[in-house]
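Narrative summary of target 7.
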Amino acid sequence: MDTVRIGLVGCGGMGRALFAQAATLDYARIVAVSDLDEARRGEAAEQFGCEGIADFAALIARDDIDAVFVATPGGYHREVVEAAAAAGKHIFSEKPLATSVEDCDAMIAAVERAGVKHATGQVCRFHPTHLRLKQMMSEGPLGPVLGMYVERLGARWAASHPTWRLSYKLSGGALMEINAHEIDFMLWLAGPVKRVSAVGGQMLEDRTDYPDLVFVSMTFESGAVGVLQSSSIATLGSYAGRFDCMDGSASVAQLFGGPITYKLRDSDETKTVTPEEMKVETPVLGEVRAFLEALRNGSEPPVTFQDGRAAVQVAEAAYQSVESGQPIELS
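Modeled conformation, tokenized:
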């Protein structure tokens, strides 16, 4: 198809960010947006110069929409995706794909049954520092990753945060709503996980029904190991990582666009890849473009529902491990 006609379900911040980037592509035509909140729906319709529809089912039923972007809270994704797939629409779903593996499997079955293309918004794969680390491991000079540590530390949810983020059923907790990004990144680097062990708990945050501090240990099928620290109680924030690889090590103090410091095993020199050397297009534009161009040329999107499921599976297993005190084997 030359022009891709698109609709949006969920007009919150992320949904509008996705469509703001889609609007810059001359082959994307925004047809309609849907949200139960009248104010959000009206603002988005005005911003994108399109129709605003309260009922997402009415948007999905339209014949002049080829693809649907789903940006509701994760706990609502399954209902929207199953309806969109049944209507023959291609689907881009924000992360987390869902808030349970069971829902992910139902969504994958729906898109496979319908034969529609599908993508998940794991945007870190389009961020410059994440992308360069992946390239340095797969193409050189670092070689395959053997062990890694990633931390994403933030403060308690502010009163201004959407209340749905306080609910595990709707958000999937921090490990899905936030750390789906880091989990997907680690899976992208090292491949499938075979075992998850986690410790943590609900230390300070009494408004949620899920842990606010978790250390997740992952054993990968490749033999690599990794640890993710997730915190929403930190007064000193951080988004950093360290990666020990076959041919050297790398350290990043700021994974969102910061420099990469690395040293190879056969060298005494410590080198740096600067942000200026890692320039890429806006990451959200990158993921939107990749999905829409796959529809135009008939290829498979680079990040699919199966990738989204893998991140949810690790997060779900981590919560199970925290609760049981036992490692969880993944099938």
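The chain has two domains: 4-122+283-302, 124-280+312-329.
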